[in-house]
Design a protein that fits this description.
Elements lengths: L1 E3 L1 H14 L4 H16 L10 H9 L10 E5 L3 E5 L5 H19 L1 E9 L6 H9 L2 E8 L22 E5 L7 E5 L6 H10 L20 H17 L14 E9 H4 L2 H16 L15 H13 L1 E3 L1 H14 L19
Parallel strand pairs: 3-4
Antiparallel strand pairs: 1-9, 2-3, 4-8, 5-6, 5-8, 6-7
């Protein structure tokens, strides 16, 4: 395992993204979001995905220089064409548009089709919450990525279809829920395989496809995501042999202050969260943490000690460095005991 400073990793990732055709300002933003995933302990959605996006650009499935455009505008309801842009940029644009329209109308829904994979959704949940909004996101793979079995099934019929929620608190970290509707994200399985870690048996069905999260509950949530992000957004939903249409999204933003003053809302949020934390614990259990707090704690450690880049991922970064003539980020000498925050 290698350790790198976060800012050096950002610089390297941004340089690679620029080399495949991204605008510098977008490349820097996307690089920051990718490294934020590693900082939060979610390596499965971070820098290890960089070769995937380069490959998508090579295949003509990613348009690095594009941004989404509005194709239907009804004021509080908007549909975007993602134009195969990088998902990080597409989700930034969707979130900011939803926030702006919610300021105007009190509530706004923004749908998007033809976006590329967006990685971790938590960043956009937090982005909306920082703007004083309650935001909700549903995503699908436009019918592809059928690597999750419905509850009781043993073949892929659904994608991991993540759901994200961001709610403002009186201070950061805001309450951020980012979850796949499968028992774990597919990227996490690939990351563990890359590290040589054994895959827990309860992650996969006998035939090797992912199980839904919470059994029939996860299947139900995945179907809701298919309906909203796939069918309603016009992105496409699961069916036999679907074309690779990227990612579909439906986002909803609610302007909290239109319903009650933001400081009143966040004060009651803190009272509620404090009560939930103040609970007798099961034997051996750690303190109760609110969604968003675990990643913030890991982030603080990794900003101080360095971001771990596992061996298989480092080798892929070396390959990209050779291809584009970009120096690899310097490695830190001190290697702390390996941690697996996602385990």
């Amino acid at each position: 395992m290698n350790l790198c400073r976060a800012e050096l990793l950002v610089r390297f990732v941004a340089a690679v993204l620029e080399a495949i055709g991204m605008r510098p300002v977008d490349a820097e933003y996307a690089a920051e979001v990718m490294v934020e995933a590693d900082l939060a302990g979610h390596e499965s959605h971070g820098v290890r995905q960089l070769p995937f996006w380069v490959e998508r650009a090579d295949q003509g499935l990613l348009a690095p220089g594009e941004r989404p455009v509005i194709e239907l505008d009804l004021g509080a309801l908007v549909r975007l064409d993602g134009r195969c842009s990088l998902g990080h940029i597409a989700m930034r644009e969707l979130t900011d548009l939803a926030v702006a329209r919610a300021r105007e109308h009190g509530i706004a829904g923004v749908a998007m089709r033809r976006a590329s994979y967006a990685g971790r959704i938590a960043d956009y949940c937090a982005r909306g919450a920082r703007a004083g909004m309650a935001v909700l996101f549903w995503l699908n793979d436009s019918g592809t990525g059928q690597e999750v079995a419905p509850h009781g099934g043993d073949a892929g019929r659904l994608a991991t279809n993540p759901i994200g929620v961001g709610l403002p608190r009186s201070r950061e970290p805001h309450l951020v829920l980012d979850m796949s509707t499968s028992v774990v994200a597919k990227g996490r399985v690939n990351d563990w395989r890359g590290r040589g870690l054994p895959i827990p048996a309860d992650w996969l069905t006998p035939s090797g496809v992912l199980r839904p999260s919470g059994g029939y509950k996860g299947t139900g949530l995945a179907l809701v995501a298919e309906a909203l992000a796939g069918i309603l957004a016009g992105a496409g939903s699961v069916r036999p042999e679907p074309p690779d249409g990227g990612q579909g999204v439906f986002g909803l933003a609610i302007h909290v202050a239109r319903l009650r003053p933001l400081d009143e809302f966040t004060a009651e949020m803190e009272r509620m969260l404090a009560y939930v934390r103040d609970v007798p614990l099961e034997p051996g259990a750690g303190p109760v943490r609110i969604p968003g707090e675990s990643g913030a704690a890991v982030r603080e450690e990794r900003l101080r000690d360095g971001v771990p880049v596992h061996g298989y991922c480092w080798r892929e970064l070396e390959s990209l460095a050779r291809r584009f003539g970009i120096p690899l980020p310097a490695r830190l000498e001190r290697i702390p005991q390996a941690k697996h925050p996602e385990s």
